[in-house]
Amino acid sequence: MKRLSPYIALLRRNSAFRRLYLAQLISFAGDWFATVALLGLVLELTGSAAAASLVIVLQTGGFALASPIAGVLADRLDRRRLMVVADFARVPVALALVLVRSPETLWICFLAITLMAIGAAVFEPTSSAALPNLVEEEELGDANVLLGSAWGVMLAVGAGLGGLVAATLGRDAAFAINAASFALSGLLIVGIKRPFQKVRAPSGEDRPRASASPLEALAIVLRFARQSRMLAALLLSKTMFGVGTGVVLMLAVFGRDVFHAGDVGIGLLYAARGLGALIGPFGARAIVGTDDRGILRGIAGSVIVVAIAYGLFPLAPSIWIAALLVFVAHLGGGAQWMLSTYGLQRAAPDEIRGRIFSFDYGLVTLTIAVSTVFAGILSESLAPAVAVWTMVTLIAIAGLAWVWFSAPARRQIARVGEISGEEAG
Questions:
Q1: In degrees to the nearest 10, what's the CA dihedral of 95, 99, 102, 104?
Q2: From 68, 69, 373, 402, which residue has the greatest number of CB atoms within 10 Å?
Q3: Predicted structure pTM score
Q4: Domain CATH for 342
């Protein structure tokens, strides 16, 4: 309990962050209620893992395509209003999912998923960009751990309960809960009084322009990345994991078709994923810390954990052992997400932070979309176990490439440490 006291204290004293945190918890819970129900629905209507992969592909692909414009908006417009609009606009879209009743109406499902992904592309990077303005500098590390774990908390709770709700009350109930979650999230954010961005400098000063077009925004991000190998490595960290993230699609296949547990089985495996993502950020901060050296070591260690755990996953003799391995894998996944996000928040100036995070999230979601398409194709032509091992191989190769790419940053950090030690001596 003592280790949790800084996080509890932050939630108690900072009402702005508390509201943002609760909004994220509620929104994430609704997302996972809907995702579990959607995966089960598409598998039931089509019997095709490739068709089910479209759920994740559209979620990630829609996010990626909208990200360049969303980043510009996050730096140009009032971030609080932008997040509220993104929430309330998704309420009727989420409710439209109750109209899906047959293969002929699946287009409604896919359209709704895409529109909700666009809303998420506006909301999520804007939230990450705003966070350093809602907490004090010394609170930013704790705030990132809490928000990083929020996704995991609600994946664990939302996916687990979502599977049960879909199985007992019906999928329409899960879709209605998702719609309500967006409304509640928007109401919480409306009540935040603290500014979501700094007051902009006079236009004559040599500062990045918030009015930049998407192409100009990309150029700004690339200039930012060229400043140092450390910054570039942070921007590529999530994408490195995204290369093999199509393996997550196989959780639905294993839960429904391998372990024959239906929506409850899908929910259990996704809940295990969420529990790992919940604990991973706390573990990473305690083990490697949040300085530059710890961030790079933590990300490298995370990919090893993911590869080993998912490599053993197809050998699990029961769904409970499989869930344990998924939990271990996403300890690593949750850790690397928090570490790379914190590093970027600390390094990026406020006036371009929206574009930085839109690029970061957009690149990883695009990679996940491609990875999921590939996993869906593999699942149609290969045995489920072979499909999983193929995706694990991809993430291992991507991880080795990232370790090689980030090596100059690690050497530079080591040299700085040696110089500091000599000066202290």
A1: -100
A2: 402
A3: 0.72
A4: 1.20.1250.20
